[in-house]
Amino acid sequence: MQIDAIHKALANPMRRQILGWLKEPHVHFAHQVHNLDVGVCAGLIDARTGLAQSTVSAHLAALQRAGLITSRKVGQWIYYKRNEEAIKAFLDHMNEGL
């Protein structure tokens, strides 16, 4: 677990917002055509943020480097979902360490 990378990723409010949306994809991305069990299409995350695609890509890359999300390529599209195991391990570490 990369504690410093996780803290850095979580320091940005938009990254925390993206994690929140991915926690409940059926609520925030219900209109996605593909099954949400695969993850959420990067294009839908882009659209929801209202930010430039390159900015959202940088946020997603930071979350992925920290291990908080995973990606899966399906055809030409990339789908993202939370890495619940890593998030739980981080929260457990924080609860025990502080």
TrEMBL record:
UniProt-recorded Gene Ontology molecular function terms: DNA binding; DNA-binding transcription factor activity
Pfam families tied to this protein: HTH_5
Keyword presence, DNA-binding: yes
Occurrences of domain HTH arsR-type (ranges): 1-98
Keywords linked to the UniProt accession: DNA-binding, Transcription, Transcription regulation
Stored PROSITE patterns: HTH_ARSR_2
PANTHER family xref list: TRANSCRIPTIONAL REGULATOR, ARSR FAMILY, TRANSCRIPTIONAL REPRESSOR SDPR
Protein's UniProt name: Transcriptional regulator
